[in-house]
């Protein structure tokens, strides 16, 4: 139902509106470590217009050609198989995981993303902002390898128009995790790719990652423990209810507030016993970042753009399982990479679309 409504909004005139203003994206990412030492992570995907997504498996040996404003750019062949989400049928995994447990996610980065101008000299090293995660996933097995390649300038992100997206170069930055729990953020700032260590494994949107980490210092008093009673002039004051230790936690949907909540929720979570239970915990935590239609919106050219949580993704790099649920279908679905042929000759595809099943358990009442 929502999907049809959003498509009607687009038909009314969204293309003209997007020519002058991009709808916001409000994605949130977290990482958790379980009691047995496993690593799990996940993210939400929000946008102001409907994004047609599919889950794909890219096999080893698949040939890629990066897009640039001047045409074909960097070419490479997949060293590793990868599974993840693509947008608008463009074979560029914007959130996924490879056979080594390396995971990459693209997050919206409005007003701050600064890409490198494409020239005849750098075209052979250039690719679009959507190609970049695919290059990382199919080429590298660890955060250390990614860091070395990016610092060496092996790839350049070009200000490229993407099929299906609003008609201007889309602003993205990226989070990268590996199976050891190492994590970095990669941001295109001033035409260069800058790498930040991300020990918390948290990611949202603008401003830059270092700003978010500095902003966390405003919230170091937050505590999962309830505040004890206080006696003043013989009068004892007690908390009104649970959660008094989190008084002051920002609750809005802005990127800085979501970054703080993601950091606090993941840091204070009681570790699940293993990765399987950790995945459940990822989904429960990310439920706190669900954006319902209407509460985060903008009007451009008479068209309403409302951010909402289209997908929620979770990844288990130990079992190599990629999970997701959608706005229209809250059932959790999974692709098990170990059951796929990593040397397949063709891509495998699966739509993320679904319809929520409601179970009638009336007859089970006793």
What does this structure look like?
The chain has 366 residues and is of the alpha+beta class. It has a single domain, classed as Penicillin V Acylase, Chain A (4-Layer Sandwich). It is built from 6 helices and 21 strands. It has an 8-stranded antiparallel sheet, with helices on one face. It is globular, with a radius of gyration of 21 Å. The protein starts with a helix and ends in a 15-residue tail after the last strand.
- The number of domains is 1
**Overall pLDDT:** 92
CATH names the topology as: Penicillin V Acylase, Chain A
Distance between the termini: 35 Å
* Helix and strand composition category: alpha+beta
| Major sheet details | 8 strands, antiparallel
- Count of alpha and pi helical runs: 6
Looking at how many chains there are and whether they match, the oligomeric state comes to single chain
What is the succession of H and E elements? HEEEEEEEEEHHEEEEHEEHHEEEEEE
- What is the tally of beta strands? 21
Low-confidence stretches: 1-21
CATH homologous superfamily identity: Penicillin V Acylase, Chain A
How much of the residues is beta strand, in percent? 25-35%
User: What's the CATH class label?
Assistant: Alpha Beta
CATH architecture type? 4-Layer Sandwich
Shape: globular
